[in-house]
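Exercise 7. Predict the structure of C-type lectin domain-containing protein from Acrobeloides nanus.
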Amino acid sequence: MFFDQFKGFNPQTNRWERYAECYGPIAYGGQTLNPIYQMCFNNDPLIALTSAQKHDWIRDHWKRYDYYIGLYRNDNGDWVWTDFDGSEIPLGNYQPCAPGYDASSDGDCVHANATSVDNTTISLWVPSTCYPTWSQLFCGTLGCDANRTDCAYL
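Solution. The predicted structure, encoded as tokens:
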């Protein structure tokens, strides 16, 4: 499996910036007893697309359009992401839902579906099952540094 470090262009500094997050795609097929948001290695989370910058990076860097993201409905019914330490992050304001879908739609996990808008392919969010029989996933992990060396699959 190949993971790559998330990076984005900062127009305020006119520079590319690297982040401490690394992401990579994995394909999953078959039945599971665990929900899709628990399918990454080492208890790492699925990608938290908390900004257009991350969303565009997946599209531009990996050329992927259909995949599960780490957004899911928790036991309280709230939409949350899982952080690298296992804590929950609230949904926030970035919510590119497909037409006809929103936070009140059925489904407890979210799949980014390819959609064509003005001859450009983008991925818009659709709530769906947490137990698919096949999917592309984007898992995340923290990047390696002097203090964190347990990232052998990067």
